[in-house]
């Protein structure tokens, strides 16, 4: 039996976030409350150069309270598909553009409470074609990193973003010999 939503109440509605309280009947006929968040869907870009270096960025992440080494990513705008969003975001955040853009799939960061989706796009043969076009709130440092360095960074705790690690895994770049 599928879970059934009896009622959804919107508790918060802002430009970046919505919060809902759901009353849900679960398969054993118990009714429970669930609190859900809805953010904009995002695209995470796994981009590599012809030398097989992965394009990563160092960026301050407010909720984590520190600089983090992550893959380029951003919101998917209305009417955009994941590949179009990946082209735009990669160029804006890094100044890089690629030869091929392949949609790899969809991830859910926290399927217990988040309604938004994470789309993953693999980009190959990227080249720097222009200067970054950063938003006022973005302070990004570009890094080109080998898959071996990424694996070491994950194992020692330098790379901690779930969406970055899962996107790298989906791309097949993790823990290759």
What features would you describe in this structure?
- The protein has 177 residues and is α+β, with helices and mostly antiparallel strands.
- It has two domains: 4-38, no CATH class; 42-171, Nucleoside Triphosphate Pyrophosphohydrolase.
- It is built from three helices and twelve strands.
- A four-stranded mixed beta sheet has the order 7-4-10-9, with helices on both faces. A three-stranded antiparallel beta sheet has the order 1-2-3, with no helix packed on it.
- A hairpin with a 5-residue loop joins β2 (18-25) and β3.
- The longest helix has 13 residues, at 82-94.
- The protein starts with a strand and ends in a 6-residue tail after the last helix.
- The mean pLDDT is 93.
Task: Kindly list the characteristics that best describe this protein.
177 residues, alpha+beta, Nucleoside Triphosphate Pyrophosphohydrolase, 2 domains, four-stranded mixed beta sheet, 3 helices, 18% helix, elongated
Q: Write down the domain tally.
A: 2
Number of helices: 3
How would you classify the helix and strand content by structural class?
Answer: alpha+beta
Our Rg estimate from Cα atoms comes to 18 Å
Give the H and E element order. Answer: EEEEEEEHEEEEEHH
Mean pLDDT: 93
Unreliable sequence segments = none
For the record, the CATH class of the largest domain is Alpha Beta
Percent of residues in beta strands? 35-45%
Task: Provide the CATH superfamily of the largest domain.
Answer: Nucleoside Triphosphate Pyrophosphohydrolase
Overall strand count: 12
Instruction: Report helical residue fraction.
Output: 10-25%
Give the CA-CA distance, first to last residue.
44 Å
What CATH architecture label of the largest domain applies? Alpha-Beta Complex
- The CATH topology of the largest domain corresponds to Nucleoside Triphosphate Pyrophosphohydrolase
What strand line-up does the widest sheet have? 7-4-10-9
Main sheet attributes: strand count, strand direction, barrel closure: 4 strands, mixed
